[in-house]
Structures are given as C-alpha cells and as structure tokens.
Amino acid sequence: MLKRAVLGSGSSGNAYYMSDGETSILLDQGFSLVELNRRLERFGSSASQLDAVFVTHLHPDHAKGVGILARNRDIPIHLHTKAIARNAREFAFLGIPQKQVVEVEVGEVIRLGAMRIFCFTTSHDSPGSVGWYIDHPEERVMLLTDLGKTTEEQKELAQRASVLFLEANYDEKMLEEGPYPRILKHRIRSVEGHLSNDDALTFVQESGFAGNELYFVHLSSTNNDHRLLEGQAKGRVSTPFVVCEKNRWYGTIGAAQ
C-alpha cells in the first residue's frame, strides 16, 4: 500500500508524505524539524525514515525546512535546475549541503525503489516552479499546487492519476471583497499566482480526473472557506474528495487532526 498524507497545506507550511513501506519521500518541507516529526509521527513515521525530498519551488512555506532536514538527515534534495540557478539567494539561504543537492530537469525520471518520480512545469512567481508526479505500481499520484494557470499537459497527467493533490486557493468573491490591497489581489489572480476554487473545479472536469482520491489543498485562510469549497465541489465533482483545512493533516491512515 502506498501511504500518502497531507502533513500541512497553506501559507504557514506545506509538506506531503508518500511511503510504500520500503521507500519514503517528502514533497516540500515548510516546517521546523520538530514540527515535521510531530506530524510524521501521526502516520507512523519520522524524519529519520525519509529517503528523499522533492521541492516544488523556493517560497518559504514550501522550502524553509529543507535545509535543516538535510543537515540532520543525509538524503538527496531534488529541485528543478532553474529553481537553483534563478533563485540563488533564496537557495543559498536554505543551507542545503551541496553533496545532497540533486538538480532535476523537467521530465527527467528519478527512480527510488518502486517509485518513478518526475516533475512538470507550473506557472508561478517563483522561477523553476514545478509540480511532481509519482508513478508507483499501486498508485499514480500528482501534486499540482501554486500556479496561476493550468496546461493541457497537466490535464493529461491528471487524467492518468489515481490520487490528485490540487490547489484551490481562493474564492473569487471572497478575494474581491476581502482586505488584501489591490496589487496583491492582482498577483493572486495572475497567471503566475494561484488557482481559484472555480479554476480547480474546472480543471477536474476538463482533465477527466476519475481517480480514487482528490485532495483540495493550499486554501487561503483569508480568501477561502472549506465549507464554501465543499459545497461548490459537491455539485461538480463525482470523485471522493477532501478539502484540506489549514493547520490540519490528512491521509490514508487516521482521521484529520
């Protein structure tokens, strides 16, 4: 069984855990080492059992804990080549030991145990931003978050996936009527910003995703509401889904906490 868990999702920290009992990985690491271990413990694991980390982009809520994890656990840290080359200051600040850095190109397949893992480009205001796809004999998992627009390639990948972690960052009405300054609202709505609830639901429909599990992630605590998204999704999504609230965690073992 391929365990998967949302250890955290939102502006305060993001991390996704995958394990088949032989190989265990993280997608993003936006927490302190203490907090990461606290969350992994809920799923019967710890940082000492991780085999690799795969980073979507270098915004702090996704990457600020990568360096401390790497310095305490000698495992490879995978990032898109452009994320390193075009975010030199942010990358250096993480303090990842150079011998553990693995630069990855889009479409390049990394094999870890039974997992075949590759990245694909996403449109976000962090150069080298990517999503990740895990091809495993038991599941095909796609992480698609922090992007302002979707592509046909992403829809094709989602159509083949059995588990999809998909951003639904904001409700358009809540964003428009909310407290953010106009320039920030524009950034969120831009093609290098975030997906709205409607964007996410349209993506599910247009991709033909019909997998086993759908997780809506990276909800804004200011411009979205999990109950609102749940109501919107019930009318448009037939796949079993979970709306992941901020500061809670979800997965194949145990209930949300």
Describe this structure in words.
- By secondary structure, the chain is of the alpha/beta class.
- The protein has one domain: Ribonuclease Z/Hydroxyacylglutathione hydrolase-like (Metallo-beta-lactamase, Chain A, 4-Layer Sandwich).
- Helices cover 29% and strands 24% of the residues.
- It contains 10 helices and 14 strands.
- The strands form 2 sheets. A 7-stranded mixed β-sheet has the order 6-5-4-3-2-1-14.
- Strand 10, helix 6 and strand 11 form a beta-alpha-beta unit.
- The two termini are 22 Å apart.
- The C terminus is likely disordered.
Instruction: Provide the residue-averaged pLDDT.
Output: 95
Instruction: State the CATH topology.
Output: Metallo-beta-lactamase, Chain A
Q: What is the count of distinct domains?
A: 1
Instruction: Write the CATH homologous superfamily.
Output: Ribonuclease Z/Hydroxyacylglutathione hydrolase-like
CATH class: Alpha Beta
Strand order of the largest sheet: 6-5-4-3-2-1-14
Architecture blueprint of SSEs:
Elements: E1 3-8, E2 15-19, E3 24-27, H1 33-41, E4 52-54, H2 60-63, H3 66-72, E5 77-80, H4 81-85, H5 88-94, E6 101-104, E7 110-112, E8 115-121, E9 130-135, E10 140-144, H6 152-160, E11 163-167, H7 172-177, H8 182-189, H9 197-207, E12 213-217, H10 226-234, E13 241-243, E14 250-251
Parallel strand pairs: 3-4, 4-5, 5-6, 10-11, 11-12, 12-13
Antiparallel strand pairs: 1-2, 1-14, 2-3, 7-8, 8-9, 9-10
Helix pairs in contact: 6-9
